[in-house]
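=== RUN LOG ===
request id: a7f3
mode: sequence -> structure
chains: 1
length: 110
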Amino acid sequence: MIYELREYVAHPGAADKLHRRFRDKTLALFARHGLEVAGFWVDEKDPNRIVYLLKFPDAEARKKAWQAFQNDEEWQQVKAASEADGPIVASMTSRLLGPVDYWPAEQQGA
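=== RESULT ===
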């Protein structure tokens, strides 16, 4: 099992638009393409910072899921519509997280 930690920083005043896009459209598209969300959070000190965690059985499953999502015509339309008045994401980072040998496998979702 591998995890991907993604962090988005919304442009000032655009956090609500980003939350709305995730809530109303993106999560359903994630599910369609095998992007399994383990959790979503907001930085308590910076409400423009949205963090979520995805989990995948392996690197190949991750690659295929993201490829299918990015190529999804509905996602492309959703993204374009949400950014009709300008970009809503100022920055995004992604980190791949792998297991360590000293943490129990059942705690890692294996």
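=== NOTES ===
Strands lie at 2-10, 36-43, 46-56, 89-97.
The radius of gyration is 15 Å.
=== END ===
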